[in-house]
Amino acid sequence: MPDTLPLLEVLRASERYLADRGVEHPRLNAEHLLAHALGLKRMELYLQFDRALTETERAPLRETVKRRGTREPLQHILGTAEFHGRTFGCDQRALIPRPETEQLVELALEISKAHPAAKILDLGTGSGVIALTLALELPAAEIQATDLWPDALALASDNAARHNIADRVRFTQVDLLPTGDTAFDLIVANLPYIPTAKIATLSAEVRHDPASALDGGADGLELIRRLIEVAPAHLSPGGALLLEIGAGQANAVNTLLTARKFRDISVRPDYENVPRFAVGFHG
Question: Per-residue confidence at 2, pLDDT binned at 50, 70, 90?
Fold first, then answer.
C-alpha cells in the first residue's frame, strides 16, 4: 500500500466498507469518522479531497471504521451527540439522544413560555440533554433532574460542566420522583417505553444503549404508569406532565391520564407522524 493516499480515495474506501456491512448512510458516517480522525470539521473535508494522507493519519480512521462496521453507534465512537443545536458528551452510560426528543424539548419550551421562572423536573435524565437544554433556553427556570443510575448521572454532570451550567441543574439519584415538598410547574419525562419482547428486534445500534434505558416492561408502560399515578402530588395547580411515549401507546396513556383526573389531555405526533408526546394538566 502506498505511503500516502488521497483523502477522497480514503473516504470512498471507508464508505464502501460501511455500506458492505449494512450501515445506514455510509458516506455520512465515513465523513464524520474521517473528520474526527483528522481533527477537522466535516465540511472542511470538501476543501481537502486532494490532500495526501499518510499511514499515520489513516491508522486511527481504520480502527474507528472497523468499530462502526460492527454497528457500534457513531455517537459512541465520536464520544459526542448533537442535540438541539448543541454538542453533548455521549457514551454507553445513557441513551443516545434521538431527534424526536428534540421535539419533546420544544413542547416543554412551548408549555413554559408563559412561565419563564417555572420549576421543572426532568425524570430519567440519562445524559442530561433535556434538563440542560431547558436550563440553557430558560435561564430563569429552576431545573431538577433525576435518574436511578449513578453512571448516567455522572455523564449528565459532565455535560452540565461542558456547558458551564453545573450550578443551574440539580441532579438527584432516585427512583422516579425526588423527595420533598416541591411542586413542579412541569414534569417532563422520556422514560423507557419499549416492550421487553421487542428489544431483541431493535437495530444493532439501538441495542448498544443501556437496557435500563429501553425496557419499559411487558407493555412498555411500566414506568409511565407508575409516574402518572404519583405525578399529581408533585405538580402545582395547572402544572403539566409531558411524556415521550412509544408507537401504539397513545390510547393507553390517554386512559391513564384521564383516570388520574388530568385535563386538557393531548397527544401530538413526531416528525414521522407517530403519536409520540402526551401532555396533561393537573388541577
Answer: low
Closest CA to 95 of 123, 124, 66: 124
Check pLDDT > 90 for residue 179: no
Residue 75 lies in a domain: no
DSSP string, 90-144: --TTSPPP-HHHHHHHHHHHHHHTT-TT-EEEEES-TTSHHHHHHHHH-TTSEEE
Please give the average per-residue pLDDT across 93-121, as a whole number. Answer: 94
The answer to whether residue 1 scores a pLDDT higher than 60 is: no
> Could you tell me the pTM of the whole model?
0.92
Domain count, the chain: 2
Q: Based on the domain organization, do 147 and 57 belong to the same domain? A: no
Structural domain boundaries, residue 15: 4-70
Q: Is residue 11 part of a domain?
A: yes
The CATH number of residue 66's host domain is 1.10.8.10
